[in-house]
């Protein structure tokens, strides 16, 4: 996608690319290993692109949310409620878009920024264990929902 839009942005002398990573980049997540690895990749790609494209007046931003109430998290009661777990998508996007052009990386929402900061204080082995517990809990909720839907 970036390869398609960058030539046009260079011609017009401005542009913005927003890549959606996730807080999942903060630690390898057992039970969501590929997901967390790809989000780490997206962050690395975005930061490199940001420097490459800076001179063309093209902003590249990497958004790294925690849990937002969307289709993706709908299966889980835990991940789709409240301010931190399951931030309403309207509140999240309103806040995240405000940071475009101001910062190359953002969690997108204040509560996510607080949690990200607190997590960054922990050693990686502990972040992995916490992430594993959350992922396994969400997985159980997903499996339960599958069973409930089959029984309907
Ligand atoms: N929700 C969260 O808590 C959360 C947290 C961190 C990061 N993220 C990231 O945010 C991004 C958006 O997720 P979301 O929560 O907004 O999920 P979502 O509501 O399920 O939306 C996913 C979007 O991706 C599109 N899509 C899915 N597969 C596609 C494909 N193969 N080709 C093209 N488009 C495709 C879907 O299109 P259709 O509507 O046409 O199916 C939909 O518009 C994801 O990268 C996710 O990892 C989400």
UniProtKB/TrEMBL annotation:
Record flagged with keyword Oxidoreductase? yes
One GO molecular-function annotation for this sequence?
Answer: oxidoreductase activity
Q: Does the keyword Oxidoreductase apply?
A: yes
Tell me the Pfam families matching this sequence: adh_short
Keywords, A to Z, come to: Oxidoreductase
Q: Which GO terms describe its cellular component?
A: endoplasmic reticulum
Q: What is the name listed in the Swiss-Prot or TrEMBL entry for this protein? A: Estradiol 17-beta-dehydrogenase 12
* Naturally occurring in which organism (per UniProt): Glossina pallidipes (Tsetse fly)
